[in-house]
Amino acid sequence: MSDVKPIESLPGVAPAAATVRVENRTLIFIAALASVFITAIESTIVATAMPTIVASLGGFELLSWVFTGYLLTQAVTIPIYGRLSDLYGRKPILLIGTALFLIGSLLCGLAWSMMSLVIFRLIQGLGAGALTSVGRTLIGDVYQGADRARMQGYVSSVFVSAAILGPVVGAFLVAHTIWPMVFWVNLPLGIGAGAILIWALHETIERKRHRIDYAGAALLCVSTGLLMMALAQADALGPVRAIGLGIVALILLVGFVFYERFVPEPIWPMTLWRDRVITSGNIVSIGLGMTMMGIAAYLPIYVQGVMNDSAFAAGMTLMGMSVAGPLGAFTAGRIMLRHSFRTAAGIGGVIYIAGCVMMTMLDPQSGPAWAVFSGLFIGFGMGMNNNTYMVAIQSGSGWSQRGIATSTIMFSRILGQAIGAAMFGGILNAQLSHYLSGGGDLASRLMTPELRQSLPPETLQTLLVGFDHALHLIFVILVGLAIAVLLVGLMLPKGRGIDE
Predict the structure, then answer these.
(1) Domain locations in the chain?
(2) 0.90 cut: is pTM over it?
(3) How far apart are CA 207 and CA 375, in angstroms?
(4) According to CATH, what is the number of the domain 272-500?
(5) Which CATH class is domain 1-210?
(6) Which residues contact 297 (CB under 8 A, 6 or more apart)?
(7) What is the predicted pLDDT for the residue at 96?
(8) Fold agreement (1-210, 272-500)
(9) In principle, which of 76, 141, 453, 482 could form an S-S bond with 356, CB 3.0–4.6 Å?
């Protein structure tokens, strides 16, 4: 292997010529993986520790903003960091993101009130936007062909590790240390990743004056921020405010699209949408993000509430889906190498549909094994699609567009999660209103075995019927989303796959 690998530049939007030394690519991969890991595990660790943090800081009414604020700043900055990394290189943007994330983590541990914690979480989110997107882009830079597919599959396993380790680490830290440690645990990992990048990553970027699209970046931040807020806080805002906020966001997004057409170096090049693979990847990512929220939020509710099974069984359904995801990603890599992106996406789509159909066949008498296996099929199919589109987009994008192309697919997935959370929550509440009158407390009692036993038999039966119908409607919608994902996958170019 040569010491220096030239990286291609695609024409279109002020490409930057670049080379990167790859003799240390294993270390670079470890640093990029660590960057993604600390952002993935952060949410699960913090969620486990929040009861203790609220008891210490107070401010329960701001609890949701600890998570919403982090998600908002992370989501709206992902495309911006991706584009900046195309202009100035991955290394400086990753180091800036690492510094912001670690400063935010340090300050979160020093928070003296819930409001200060929310503000410091915003800083954390600003850094996370760079780590999640540019970290995966860097992996696409230093690996090609089958290696790229395999390494992106390893990245998928990071999210499984985070889902498993996060609650365990969070519970341990809260029980045996002080609650600020749930934030400070990021510091050694982040510092180590940053040190590796400084020492091992050597990029040579053609130095030229760039005209940063400040106005476009501002429009993108405001419009997507308002849209995410309208979706994530729909219940708190109420229908009128949420819809109004959403309309303003959509108007600004339309203005952003028109503005970007006339900018020499746009923050989000509209030329990307001419590529069928990138467009398909973004559409599929929205669908997968919606599905993730539908399953993560409501399949455990069905298992624990309607089927009256244990919290452990409910957790196993999600565990099955999480474990199957990386297996699907690795399988997709082999199929892409031997056949094509279209074949991998098609097979993944069929398996994904099968899992969703299995989920619609759940009933109150179903055993937990059926729910676990449906989660396994769904996770496997989603893992295949996630890795297929990530590798396809990175393979078809030159260095000068790989950052923004990778970022758009990740941004679309987060947007899909926000849309799914708002839409499915609204569907559930609307359906339950036909069976319950002011029954929010009753619904909560259904999920607690001790309180469930205290419900009158006729009330319990009404609750079970209501939840069964409402959740099955959500499951049927998930089947529709899975079919749409398959149809989009079948529109990918024939015969286009990974080159050795």
Answers:
(1) 1-210, 214-262, 272-500
(2) no
(3) 49
(4) 1.20.1250.20
(5) mainly alpha
(6) 421, 424, 425
(7) 93
(8) yes
(9) 482
